[in-house]
Amino acid sequence: MTKSHPFNLVDITVPKDGHEAAQRFYTQTFGWKVDVDLPGYPIFGTGDGGSQVGLMWEGNPQSGDMAKFWKTGTPVPFIGTDDIDATLAEVEKNGGEVAHPVKLAGAVKVATIEDPWGNVLFLWQPQY
User: Of 9, 44, 55, 117, which one has the fewest beta carbons inside 10 Å?
Assistant: First the structure.
């Protein structure tokens, strides 16, 4: 995976209940390749300098206590950061909320935030 600029959109996760069929759809339709194959969460590379697309099936045990944020039909945007804790502090300072604290998920730290209007976004800090 290529390191992206902080605060770029780095990943969009597409929750889906038919995992194998969804993986075929994205590889055959767009020509994306699986860059990282985490258990139940393949991450597709969209090409040099592009974002990535993760495929998390709804109900995947890997999501654990974050499962309420994974709903089929609702893509989940991830924003990259070099310092997830500092970014969470800025979110709260500016009127947002931490909806789920930092969690290590494979090769990344993730956290869930809500902006002041209730829109849910994930933060992503690579550990590689």
Answer: 117
| pTM recorded for the entire structure | 0.66
For the CA atoms of 107, 81, 89, 105, the dihedral, rounded to the nearest 10 degrees, stands at -20
For the record, the structure tokens of 67 come out as: 């499962």
For residue 79 the two structure tokens come to 């924003």
pLDDT in tens, 24-81: 877 887 778 888 777 777 888 777 777 777 777 666 666 666 667 767 777 778 888 8
